[in-house]
Amino acid sequence: MSENTQDILIKEAAAAAAVSGSLFSTFDIIMLVVLFGAAVWWLYSSRKDNKKDDLLLSKYSIQPAATIEVTENSFITKLQSSGRSLVVFYGSQTGTGEEFAGRLAKEGIRYKLKGMVADPEECDMEELAKLKDIKNSLAVFCMATYGEGDPTDNAMEFFEWLKNGDPDLTGVNYAVFGLGNKTYEHYNAVAIYLDKRLEELGATRVYELGMGDDDANIEDDFITWKDKFWPSVCEKFNIESTGGRRVNKTI
C-alpha cells in the first residue's frame, strides 16, 4: 500500500471519529435535557400532591379528646333523649338477671313507664343521683349473688362505689329483685345489701325486696314478685288499672 493511500485512510478514519464524537455529544445533551425536565416535573407533582394531603388533613383533622363530650355511658341522657323514665339495671353472670331486667323494661310501657335495660358496668352510676330530675322515674335492680356472696363481674365496680362513696340519692325511687340459691351460705347477699344501702343513701323503696331461689323455681319467684310490684308502682305514680289497661289517674 502506498503512502498516499495510507494518508487517505488515516484522514477518513479521523473524520469518521470526529463525526461519531459529535453525534455522541449531542445525544448526551439531549438525554440531560430530558432527565432535567423529568426531574422538574416530578418535583412539581410532589408539591401538588403534598398540598392536596395538607388540605385533606386540615379538613378531617381529629379534634383533641378534651373538646369532645363523651355521653355513651350516660344513662340519664339516654332516658331523657328517648322519653323514658324506667331504667332496669342487671347484675348477671349466666344471663337470667339480664333476661328478667328485659321483661320488666318491656312491661313498663303498660304502666306509662317506658323502660330501658342497662348494664351498670357500661354506665356512669354516679348519675343515679340525677334520676330524680326525670318525672315519675324509677330504677329497678335485678341483681344476682355470685360465688361467696359477691356481686357479678359486671356489677363489681358499682358495688365498690356504693360501699366507699356517699352519694345523696334522696328522691330516687327504686326496687330490687335478687337472684340467689338457698343452698349457698350467702343467699341473695348482694340484693339484701343493695336494698338496704340504697335506703341508707336516701332513696325511696317503692316495693319490698324480692328474692328468687334458683334451687327451687326462680321463675315463679320472679312472677310472684313483679305481679305485686307493678300495683305498688301504680300507687306511687298515681296510675290505676281499668279493664286490664293502666292509665294515668286523674286527680
From TrEMBL:
GO terms of biological process kind: response to hormone
Tell me which UniProt keywords the record has, alphabetically.
Flavoprotein, Membrane, Transmembrane, Transmembrane helix
Domain Flavodoxin-like, by residue range, is: 86-230
Query: Which chain regions cross the lipid bilayer?
Result: 23-44
Q: Which domain of life is it from?
A: Eukaryota
- Gene Ontology cellular component annotations, sorted alphabetically: cytosol
What InterPro entries would the database entry show? Flavdoxin-like, Flavodoxin/NO_synth, Flavoprotein-like_sf
Instruction: Spell out the molecular function terms from Gene Ontology.
Output: flavin adenine dinucleotide binding; FMN binding; NADPH-hemoprotein reductase activity
Q: Which PANTHER family match?
A: NADPH--CYTOCHROME P450 REDUCTASE, NITRIC OXIDE SYNTHASE-RELATED
What's this protein's name?
Flavodoxin-like domain-containing protein
What are the leading ranks of the lineage?
A: Eukaryota, Metazoa, Ecdysozoa, Arthropoda, Hexapoda
